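This part of the workshop introduces the protein records we will be handling. A record pairs a protein's sequence with a compact description of its fold. Backbone structure tokens are a discrete shorthand for how the chain folds in space. The question running through the whole workshop is how a given chain folds. The record below serves as our worked example for the rest of this section.
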Amino acid sequence: MTDAPLFAPLIVEARKLNRSLAALLAVAAPSLIAIFVFFNMLRGEQPAPWDMWMMSASMIWAFFMLPMSVTALTALVAHMEHGPRSWDHLRALPLPRWRLYAAKAVCVLAVVALMSAAVLVMSWAAVSLAAAIKPQLQPTGAFDLAAYGATMGRMFAAAVLMIAIQLWVALRFASFVPALAVGIGGTFFSVVATSAKQGVFFPWQMPVNMMASEAWRMNTALGLGCGLGVVALFAALAHLSRREVL
């Protein structure tokens, strides 16, 4: 089999996303965090370390904006087929059905990864701009991009299970209500049960645990989020390829 047929569904999905609101979402969510950091920094009177600003942005991303962005993105990706009722046409194409769903999963993961990187870039820009306006607030300490990137990478890996669950539900049901209910419910319980020790086993809290001071919490959440996330993605591909959309 040639490379063109193999990657054709992925190319098509990427073009669909480019013509959808996914690009706006990918910019809007990190921008909101950057705007918050910018105005919060301008309120200060004393300089703070780079670590504080960048870790604060990462925490906001993992705690609230990441799960809500995943909820919106997976619903958007699924609705591109549910809306015009094009699943019957797609599933009748002469190629394995799992490739259709795999292409959507890869695109969702790629967009979330780009959004994670954008959080760091836009937060750095927001802090730099605020420091230019009020030079006395110039952050102290070193800007450790490698450490910030590593933390964000772990958050992305720990979020794979959450992404898999959200995408599975969004693609399984033609109505967007089940996917939104799962996403909003997961985020709600993640927020209200932030300090719960059991949160390390809750998919929506796994990215937040990458900021935990206890090594066991971080390692457990990372292992479960990434490991079980990959398993859930393969299970979703197998399940969706055999069943019809309701």
About this structure: The two ends are 32 Å apart (CA to CA). The first helix runs from residue 3 to 18.
